[in-house]
Every structure is written in C-alpha cells, then in structure tokens.
Design a protein that fits this description.
By secondary structure, this protein is an alpha/beta fold. The protein has helices at residues 3-6, 8-12, 15-22, 28-41, 62-67, 80-89, 104-110, 129-142, 162-176, 182-195, 201-210, and strands at residues 49-53, 72-77, 97-101, 115-121, 143-154, 217-222, 225-231. The relative contact order is 0.15. The structure holds S-adenosylmethionine (SAM).
Length: 240
C-alpha cells in the first residue's frame, strides 16, 4: 500500500471529512480543546517551532495556534485539496507559515530543523508498524531538548485484533454518523476498512521508548480516539 492510496479519500475531496468533523463524530471539539490546553502549558509561547504532520486543512489546530502562537509553523500533507483550505484557515496568522505537499514520514525523516512541538492528528494510523517505528525514531532525532510529541489518533485495545477493531469502529460509524449521506458513509467505511492500521497503546509506548522518548501520557480518550503526549525520556514524567 502506498501513502498516495491511503490518502486518496482526502486528495479527491476534503468535503466528506469536513462533514464528519462538523458533526464532531471524531470528537474534534473535545480533543482540540485539550490540545489548546497542552500548548498553553508551555512557557515558550511566541518562541516555539511546531511541525504538524498530516495537517489536513489545519482547521481545528488554528485556534490553538492563535492562542499560543509558535514562532514557526509548518504543516505537511499529501492532499493538495486540504492544503488549499489550510492556506485559508491560516491566513492572517502572524508568524511564518509553511505548508508543504509531501509524505509525513519522508518529511520527519529529512527535516534539518529542531522542533519544540511535533503534532499529528489522525494520520499516523495510516502507516504500517515498521513505518510507525521509523516515525518515532525520526521524532526522537529532531525533537528539541524540552520538546514534545502530541499524537492524536485512533488506538486499538490491548490484544485486540485489527479485524475486531474494524468491526467495532465500522459499527460505531454506521450507528452514529447518521448525518452523513449513505453513499458517503460507505465511502468512509471503505477507507477505514482498507487503510486504518491503528496500534495498541502499549505498542506505541514501546516504539516511543525505543526511540529515546518516555512512555507517554494519555491526555484524553474518547472511545478509540486518543491524545497522547510524549517527551524525551531524560525529562521527568509529565503529569497533567
Ligand atoms: C483524518 S485527516 C486529519 C487532519 C487533521 N490533522 C485533523 O486532525 O483533523 C488525515 C490527514 O493526514 C493526511 N495524511 C495521511 N497519511 C499521510 C502521509 N503519509 N503523509 C502526509 N499526509 C498524510 C491526509 O491527507 C489527511 O489530510
């Protein structure tokens, strides 16, 4: 499977994802409110560098950026449609903004910058397990001394198979995403069925540890939608 295949639904059009998030079917309101709080807790507002991997249209992160402005924001995504919208949402943002069309794993593995916050929302589950391990290793290489990784994503229960996870998630979609027209709901279900490869929390934690990060801290969980915070293992564990 290529990254282009797994993101085709976002590349063709961004309107279906907009519909899903406008009805808060993936808990964007609660999750991004928590992300805003996390950024506010940093003491380097106006001075930190933030890399947003799989930024989409940056719609839900933009209010957080406005409250806790980074001195540099870079968003990376494979969907030109999403990036075109991101330009709109980020218009008027005071600091330097770069929006890059590209693969998130290639971007994090090739960055020559040091990042204080690496953020990624609902994108890493598209990577295969070995690619996720590479993702964590690359984060370990380019995170600043006091930097953190904020990982928002779907996560499997411990010892739950992918098949069992998918059965539950597709049921959740079909029972709850009632304002999505049936043909679009089926398109979304097919995307999840074909391209979602979430890991268990312990697997993500193990990958983080192997990359020199701490085991992470669960900031929130809404169903299968988690917000996890990782920092360097040399830092004391963070308790929020
Ligand atoms: C579900 S959307 C999430 C958008 C936004 N981060 C959010 O939280 O609402 C996933 C985004 O990740 C992007 N994406 C997925 N895999 C990617 C990859 N390998 N490289 C770059 N972007 C990727 C998709 O194009 C899409 O815009």
């Amino acid at each position: 499977m290529t990254s282009a295949e797994s993101t085709a639904i976002f590349t063709r059009s961004w309107s279906l994802y907009n519909l899903i998030t406008e009805h808060n079917y993936m808990f964007h309101q609660e999750i991004y409110s928590g992300v805003c709080d996390l950024l506010k807790l940093r003491n380097d507002s106006g001075q930190y560098h933030l890399l947003d991997l799989g930024c989409g249209n940056a719609r839900y992160l933009t209010p957080c950026l406005k409250q806790s402005p980074p001195s540099l924001y870079e968003g990376v995504d494979l969907s030109e449609a999403a990036l075109a919208e991101a330009h709109g949402y980020l218009a008027g943002f005071p600091g330097p903004v770069t929006l890059t069309h590209g693969d998130l794993l290639a971007a994090i593995e090739s960055t020559d910058k040091t990042w204080d916050v690496i953020f990624t929302g609902f994108a890493v589950h598209h990577l295969m397990a070995e690619e996720k391990a590479r993702f964590f290793r690359a984060v370990g290489h380019c995170l600043s001394e006091n930097g953190c990784l904020i990982l928002v994503d779907v996560v499997r229960e411990e010892n739950q198979s992918r098949e069992n996870y998918l059965e539950g998630y597709l049921k959740f979609m079909r029972e709850n995403w009632i304002k999505v027209p049936p043909d679009q709901l089926e398109e979304a279900c097919t995307h999840v069925q074909d391209y979602d490869y979430p890991e268990c929390l312990s697997t993500l934690q193990e990958m983080a540890r192997a990359a020199g990060l701490n085991a992470g801290c669960m900031i929130s969980r809404y169903g299968q939608h988690y917000t996890l915070l990782f920092a360097r293992s040399s830092l004391p564990e963070i308790h929020y």
